[in-house]
Amino acid sequence: MGDARVRVELGAVPETALWTLYHRAAEARQWGGVLEDPRAVELVDRIDYPFEERFGPGAGLQARLQGVRVRCFDREVEDFLARSPRGTVVCLGEGLETQYWRVDNGRATWLSVDLPEAVALREELLPPEPRQRLLACSVTDPRWMDEVDDSHGVLITAQGLFMYLRPTEVRDLIAACARRFPGGTLVFDAVPRWFSRLATEGKLRSHAYQAPPMPWGMDAGERSKLATADPRVSEIRDVLPVGGPGRAGALIAAAVRLPVLSSRRPSVVALRFADRDRRETP
Ligand SMILES: C[S@@+](CC[C@H](N)C(=O)[O-])C[C@H]1O[C@@H](n2cnc3c(N)ncnc32)[C@H](O)[C@@H]1O
């Protein structure tokens, strides 16, 4: 990574990638954190942006929650690469995620899809390595699917993305993935409905930052409805967080277990799509 500081100004939705980067790096800096991510720490130091002024001090529970979400995705990618070492990992809305440097196995292919301004920034700050490719394309435009080689298996991740799409876009995207990638898996996270409502009413404020609208929300207890997006959705799995050490870890573990909170918490879901043989059975 180069040394010169890079001034960054982004529109409201791509800017959310700075929020996740900042909290991920904060968790990586935290003693006893759940995440090792030196690349994210370097990146925050390199970007000329008023992180603390906009997003607050960046430590504590917020950072832990971010780290826990990231670990859910990392575990899914690690498991996929253990089964399909030469597979393709497609990262939708990847922003400035540094997952490649945390979990790559030296053989897989990576495709990153994001909006043009986010991709331009990623290209400058995290230039792609030989097995990585960047594509400037909205995830709602099926063009990105033509770029995916799924001959050795495919895992599609959408971390911190679906909440910024409209409900019909989420449904159509799930259905299109089920159609195009038989045997593939899609992992994504969802904010609960109450959270989506607050964001959309402009009530999610902290420090000098107001989160953009989040039109799509899904309570964790609703995940079985995802099967209605397409009959090829063959498995729906709740990817449970591991809270990590300390008080923050204990709080997260309790929230997942308590029924009243559990059904309305943020969630990470893995959808598996029926493979070609099963799909073609009448
Ligand atoms: C909250 S950030 C998450 C970034 C990264 N996945 C992470 O977890 O750090 C949301 C990302 O989704 C991207 N995004 C939002 N809408 C998109 C769309 N329609 N097509 C492609 N990317 C989109 C944004 O540009 C941004 O990079």
Automatic annotation (TrEMBL):
It holds the Pfam family LCM. Keywords: Methyltransferase, Transferase. SUPFAM superfamilies: S-adenosyl-L-methionine-dependent methyltransferases. Its EC number is 2.1.1.-. One of its GO terms (biological process) is methylation. It comes from the Bacteria. One of its GO terms (molecular function) is methyltransferase activity. This is Class I SAM-dependent methyltransferase. It comes from Kitasatospora camelliae.
